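User: Please predict structures.

Assistant: First:
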Amino acid sequence: MLRLPLSLMISAAVLASSAFTASAQSRSVPIVRDAEIEALVSDYTTPILNAAGLGKQRIKTILVNSQSFNAFVDGRRIFINTGALLQSETPNEIIGVIAHETGHLAGGHQDRLREQLKQAKTMAVIGTLLGLGAGIAGAATRNSAIAGAGGGIAAGGGEIAMRSLLSYQRSEEAAADRSAINYLNKTGQSAKGMLVTFERFASALSISGTQVDAYRVSHPLPRERIANLSTLAQQSPYFEKKDPESLQERHDLARAKIAAYSGGMGSLQRIFRKNPRGLGARYGDAIATFLNGNARNAIPKIDALIKEQPKNPYFREMKGDILLKANNPAGAAAEFKQAAALDPRKSSLIRMSYGRALMLTGNKANMQAAITELKAGVTRDPEFSEGYGYLAQAYGQSGQMGLADLATADQHYYAGNINEAKIFATRAQKQLKSGSADWLRAQDIINTKTKKK
């Protein structure tokens, strides 16, 4: 079951399943966790990162629960909105976005942007000081013209600084576009998806009727980007190359899942209107049926998909979620176990779902296996705070209260609630063997310094 702070809730439907999970690991960005979509995006990203020489830098790709078409980078992380995946009709479109963001990382644009921000701030301060000086001089000489000019200088300093910074950002965006095409060529992929994306932006801008000052935006205008990249993209020998059918199918399944959780049946019907009986449409229908509270009707729909693709781990995972909703944790555990066995990536999320289902059976014979699976999941994915919550429940049911308090402390710690984490860590220490690994972990949490606001 998804746990999400009220401030981050996007839709009531999002609260229904552990397969598509939003996390509060970041207080400002609503993070989405899903084994199926993460595996797909990883397959999109890995070749591009290798082409850019970043394959060994452990760059993480993170899904953001937002319906807008957007992506951005921060440190060694690429953030991709679920809305970008939803609106991209082909894998190539989203791969082009990933290639562009990789261009920012490879080019060190973030570090240079920080330097530009410092310079812009300095320019703005100098302009303000000059304006104040002129204003004071005008007041001292009772010259209103000089005083008025001082105000203009102060305002102009900030405007010049802003335009200089925006000009720099536009140049970096153009550089990232060119780098993206190079990465796509190195990986034998088309840049046509990038042009499709820019066409989408241009159409949206045209429909809105918004008049944009080209000098007051951080990105080149869509039509400008198309003009700059069109010839370069079409010169590639891969320009007309299409995505493999298997990858397109996975892309459709991911879009179906996002649509079902964020937009419901209406969104699914719009996306798959050209192929209403395709695999993606039927997958989305099964999920939407489940989310609408009709688990009994969803089971035969997901069973039909499993029969069609018996080795698909994510169909099994979804059936496990449906069975949990139908209050059948034993059946859910069996499905999650099969999903974990079929999953080539050995997703920590699926293992934690398996462990949670075992715990929910209430059978003491299953409790140690539940703890083993949950511990394996959080060990591989330590920042997934919800996993520690499940582990705390399993420890509690098995009577290991010190470890339950420590797991709860970790849950709060990774959710960013440091004060609460310290409270539970202190409680845990009183019940744990002094000097043990678990006791030392509790001490680490207690010693964590909280950042001042």
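Second:
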Amino acid sequence: MVFADAITKDHRELETYYNEVINSTDHDHQQRYGNQFTWELARHSIGEDLVVYPAFEKYLGSEGKAMAESDRKDHHQVKELLKEFQKLKSKDPNFVPKLKELWAILYEHIKEEEEKGLPSLEQSLTSLTGESESMAKKFGRTKAFVPTRSHPSAGEHPPFETAMGLLTAPIDHLADLFRKFPDETISPNPSTK
């Protein structure tokens, strides 16, 4: 799998989980998919902060640095909203509106990333044999060790986010054992994703 496809796959999963929440009136179903959405978005965001944005900076020069900084700002806003959303229960009247508010920003971020950032990055990686596939694997491995909840105070730049992630991830993973997830998800085990 090439790098851009790994990122895009996550984007489609997030969209699926979002739609499961907003198109349902069953609070249990909404809570399960809300937890799944939170779990995936937290891991995805940190994976991008640690793998994608440094790659933009490394391979795309000054334009890549500008894209990375813009995306980090988007991520910070998304992480703040996710932090608010993850505290809500599905029976809370703000549950769906907060998710819709979050999605509106996230959707624009995804669209820009898929139309501009990722194609530019993939184009620059074509001359580097195996680099795109290697980065896709690195992105997947990174997601296995990061927090599963939003912690915007950790920042968006390595090494701070890396260090904070190593401290908070075990607590998040333990708490996930007590959260409800979709029935087809036995346990949100990042090592199997």
